[in-house]
Amino acid sequence: MLKLYYNPISLNARRVWIALLEKQIPFEPIELSLDGDQFHDDFTAINPLQRIPAIVDHGFRVIESLAILDYLEAKYPTPSLLPSKPEIIAMVRMVETVTVVELQPETIPLTRPLVGLEVDPQKLEAAQQRVVNILQFFEKLLDEQNYFAGEQFTLAEVVAGTLVPSLPLEDYPHLKAWSEQLSQRDSWQQTEASPEAIKAALPNVRKLLERRS
Ligand SMILES: N[C@@H](CCC(=O)N[C@@H](CS)C(=O)NCC(=O)O)C(=O)O
Fold it and tell me: Is 172 among the domain residues?
């Protein structure tokens, strides 16, 4: 059976967890504490980069959340989360890339004060401005449609929908409605980290952020 190495508060792992649930792929969840489990030899043999998520599917190992999503889509194509129309592929890839490459790093300065770490006020302001630009862009993309690619739920939701809803969305009515719609799905409800899990993980989040600064 496919094995998923994850932690309940990891956004990167949640994407994969949601895709597995949406596609109804049976899997064995293997929780790593992120308090050192990721550095153990057994896991390092699976992911030399010592990060989650990782999957092992009948002996085939994949790391990096976006690569795992592509693998799952190709290997388990039904239900499809990436329709083949060129415009839809472009939209999905654009939203995925903006989320992971542009938006996600900007949330790090926003998170630092929440775990008691200092943040340079100029860096914080620049990050806040960049987040606003990206949310405005996403808001326009959604316009009057239910999902980024139109009326079909795709990998754009799986990727953006695990990060964007954690940001303040009062000024973005389309994103707010989209986020509320996603929160009704079983896959979102089953993978939502409890407030207790988040609170318990804060010291680990602090350590992870310290290592990255
Ligand atoms: N680019 C990777 C990022 C993975 C990542 O940063 N995972 C974090 C948890 S969300 C992690 O395992 N951190 C462990 C560490 O930094 O020691 C992906 O998308 O899969």
Answer: yes
Q: What are phi and psi of 78, to 5 degrees?
A: -115, 130
Residues with CB under 6 A from ligand 1: 10-12, 34, 38, 50-53, 64-65, 208
167 token code pair: 């940001």
Asked if residue 54 and residue 126 are part of one domain, the reply reads no
90 and 185 housed in the same domain = yes
Residue 174 CA to ligand 1 center (angstroms) comes to: 29
- Tens of pLDDT, residue by residue over 98-157, are 999 999 999 999 999 988 899 999 999 999 999 999 999 999 999 989 999 999 999 999
User: Domain of 114?
Assistant: 86-189
The domain boundary residue, chosen from 79, 97, 130: 79
Residue to probe by mutation, ligand 1, list 4, 5, 12, 191, most atoms within 8 Å of CB? 12
Its pTM stands at 0.96
The residue assigned the tokens 């939209």 is: 91
Closest CA to 69 of 19, 121, 106, 108: 19
195 part of a folded domain: no
pLDDT tens track for 143-196: 989 999 999 999 999 999 999 999 999 999 999 999 999 999 999 999 999 999
